[in-house]
Hints:
The protein is α/β, with parallel strands linked by helices. It has helices spanning about 15-20, 35-45, 55, 70-80, 100-115, 130-135, 155, 165-180, 195-205, 225, 245-260, and strands at about 25-30, 45-50, 85-90, 120-125, 140-145, 185-190, 210, 220.
Amino acid sequence: MSIHKKEEKKVTTHVLHEMKARGEKISMLTAYDFSMARVVDQAGIDVILVGDSASNVMAGHETTLPITLDQMIYHASSVVRGVNRALVVVDLPFGSYQGNSKEALASTIRIMKESGAHAIKMEGGEEILESIKRILTAGVPVMGHLGLTPQSIYKFGTYTVRATEDAEADKLIRDSKMLEEAGCFAIVLEKIPANLAKRVAENLTIPVIGIGAGSGVDGQVLVVHDMLGITNEFSPRFLRRYANLYEVMKGAVENYISDVKSVDFPNNKEQY
Ligand code: KIV
């Protein structure tokens, strides 16, 4: 028997392509800090997204717009330190890439150099194609994001399902093909009809990861705080809660408070 531990195979963009080719579904969750990233990575997740949803779940903002590039780098570098196997993808935040492709590349380079992450994600199709191409030319893998793109919430007006009308569905299909042809390694589709998402996934050779996009895609992503039930006010139809950590954590804190007040904590064994 070998005394060497088996090296875990790291997830790369190539591994994700192979997974799609053999029909193995891809699991993806968000994480924003070292401790959560460790749990999620050690559980065996394929991709960790340092999402700009950190703006909502970590900072308490109503939208993803306020989070800054510096803040994303802080979250991403914390996550990278907790990860051994998963591919770490970081969202380019609102305002860090929409200006022009030079700005987009400069923001990407900061993320890659300062966090040690493996790839970036950007929201949009044709309108950001030049930036995507420039980033890819620099050797950085890009994940696209189409459908409900939360950085455009003030344009959409609501968080309801996107691409239910033909014109928007046709643009989404065109955009997804454009992103694949440009060289994106994967695409996230958020909150669109399941039939449309399935059609896109079947049309592309790169993996399509869905959130609120049904089961016909190549993988699924959720915000980790939502699926663990740490957040309890957000309940869209697509969200499955795998735990109710809000209640577990609140109960533990209540017990601690009670033990401190009653001088039950610390006991004789818990002191020096
Ligand atoms: O920021 C985020 O968490 C995301 C996912 C919802 C895909 O972009």
